[in-house]
Amino acid sequence: MKNSSSITWFLVLAHIFLSFYSCTRGVQETRLPNEDRLFSMIIASDSSEFKDSIRERVIDKYRHAASIEIVNIKKLNEIDPMEYDVVLIIDTCLAWSGFNPALNTFLENNEQKENVVVFMTAGDPDWAYSYQGVDAITSASVVENEDVTFKEISEQIDQILIDKHKNA
After folding, report:
1. Residue-range definition of the domain harbouring residue 127
2. Is 60's pLDDT higher than 90?
């Protein structure tokens, strides 16, 4: 009986895990070079209608001044944050666990986090999360939140660029 209970729990957890990942999809990876760039940005992201819209708004705002690279969130741990002026991570809160394991590992393995902006979608619009000195911008994936979320992300990116200019 004990073995049957363990199998049932495993199947339930596997179902929840697979259901979650069926809601996300990969991004179209691309590079948007800019010969006259003032800075470089990489965006590591998963995809949903809400996150795609936010990501496109960020790209539209900074495309004129930056070289931008977009990669799938699964490549997060291949990123060296020292190679970019801004690292924007767009991810999903995994149930009640906060940052996903790849994001946790990225933050743990990289001492420089001053140029990292993290945006997480979460079911609870009041959810807030901080890990390894990085405070995540969080939002439910609701169209009404898009302007506020975009503004928060832009303000953090702008502050990184201001600080970089001051220290140059």
Report:
1. 25-167
2. yes
